[in-house]
Amino acid sequence: MLGEIFVVTGFGQGHLHPCMELCNHFSSRDFHTTLVIPSTLSSSVPSSFSQNPLSGIAQIAASSGPPMPGSDSLRQQGAQDLEAHLADRSKLPDLPPPICAVIDFQMGWTKGVFWKFDIPVISFFTFGACAAAMEWGAWKAQAGDVKPGEVRLIPGLPEEMGLTFSDLKRRPGGPPRGGPPGSGPHRPPGGGGGGPPKPGDRPPWVPEVEGSIALMFNTCDDLERPFLEYMTNQMEMPAWGVGPLLPEQYWKSSDALIRDREIRQNSRRSNYTEEEVIQWLDSKPRGSVLYVAFGSEVGPTMEEYPELAGALEQSTRPFIWVIQRGSGISKPPGGGGGGGQPGSSEEGYFPDGLDSKVGDRGLIIRGWAPQLLILSHASTGGFLSHCGWNSTAEAIGRGVPFLAWPIRGDQYYNATLVVRHLKVGYKVAEDLSEMVKKEEIVKGVERLMGDGDMHGRAARLRAKFENGFPASSETALDAFGDFISQKDK
């Protein structure tokens, strides 16, 4: 056993799952790992994780988001919990020596606790390197003053990623569900709900990574090599792509259906079973189905949902539409409902009557959906997505091209990566700061689903992952092991 690595996860499944997979990769290299989790996530860790003799779990009080007057008590308690764990551990001489802490940048406030015990820190980004590179580059290039018609190139990044006026437009600010801009347990990089910071401002992660000795990204060279190299040069420290950090079964079954419930612990309910979803997909031609799904925390506005429903009705394409509870509702701090419009309720928007209009052409799933299963099915031929990073990586690895509808934060740059750099998608509309209309969605769906060249590029990109977890990421993890072992001497 080489030593102990602490991995500190942020809030939400999109942070927890990559951190658990990262622990598994460390354990396979004979490092002992301790996953440090907010106590609210304890029920989301499968029992199989703790069965690994090289893996452990430490819980701390739940707190996230930026410091706010009068709201730091939980964070202080979390720091005390972590310090007590490290102090108790230091009294047990038989345990492997701690060699570093890999910290989700969302939890950057834990750095000081590890430094008290002389444990070096590596900052971990659960999203891709493109988003971080573009946020940094936009700041350095003073992108806030880009004029209409101008393309602001970022030295060191590919030309096709040059910033235009429309790239930097965001929908008017509003809090993400359940909290003020930039706050809450699911605070995204780049701000929340269109709120500050604006494109061209200092990225919110910059102070969170100060003092780190290296960076890790949930990506790989095949997807984002120029952006990893850029971050290495700009940050003047190693920036490794160690992902995509998806379940082991994802990489072992490149041509087989993935059963989500077998590999991801989830108690959320759905109106369809996995078997019913498979049966419906089996009845559709290869590559014919459009999969429509947004994140559990983000989505179109209450005004845009009827436009989407109308577009799916007008289109002739088979579709699966996943609608989360609370869709379209923006809640003020402290909760409170929204809606009050046709097709809405406390549960959020639902397209009443659409299922009877489209018949067997559409499958409308309310609640949880087996996304890995849907993306891995041969009938799925397109993905209307908010371009959250985990969803983006999952679809790329299965050769499914995108109709990109980013909502906030890193999703805008993930969409730009998909559309301009990888060329495996289109944007749903040119100006995403305005309300997206039915006609734009219909046009985008037909353009995406009918583009054979686009599907060919997506298939060729998928082929790079047919041999399993990316070789470049294995190499990066080995490089990390060598790097941290030298630091420990």
Describe the structure.
- The chain is an alpha/beta fold and 489 residues long.
- It has two domains: 188 residues, Glycogen Phosphorylase B (Rossmann fold, 3-Layer(aba) Sandwich), CATH 3.40.50.2000; 208 residues, Rossmann fold (3-Layer(aba) Sandwich), CATH 3.40.50.2000.
- Helix content is 36%, strand content 14%.
- It contains 18 helices and 15 strands.
- The protein has a seven-stranded parallel sheet with strand order 3-2-1-4-5-8-9, with helices on both faces. Strands 12-11-10-13-14-15 form a six-stranded parallel sheet, sandwiched between helices. The protein has a two-stranded antiparallel ribbon with strand order 6-7.
- Helix 12 links the parallel strand 11 and strand 12.
- The longest helix has 18 residues.
- The chain is globular, with a radius of gyration of 22 Å.
- The two termini are 16 Å apart.
- About 9% of the residues have low confidence.
Core attributes:
Glycosyltransferase; alpha/beta; 6-stranded parallel sheet; UDP-glucosyltransferase activity; 15 strands; Rossmann fold; single chain; 2 domains; 489 residues; 7-stranded parallel sheet; transferase; UDP_glucos_trans
Write the layout of secondary structure elements.
Layout: E1 4-8, H1 13-28, E2 32-38, H2 47-50, E3 55-60, H3 73-90, E4 98-104, H4 111-116, E5 121-125, H5 129-140, E6 151-152, E7 163-164, H6 206-209, E8 214-217, H7 221-235, E9 239-241, H8 248-252, H9 260-263, H10 274-282, E10 289-293, H11 304-314, E11 319-323, H12 354-358, E12 362-366, H13 371-376, E13 380-385, H14 389-396, E14 402-404, H15 411-421, E15 425-427, H16 438-449, H17 452-463, H18 471-487
Parallel strand pairs: 1-2, 1-4, 2-3, 4-5, 5-8, 8-9, 10-11, 10-13, 11-12, 13-14, 14-15
Antiparallel strand pairs: 6-7
Helix pairs in contact: 5-7, 5-15, 11-16
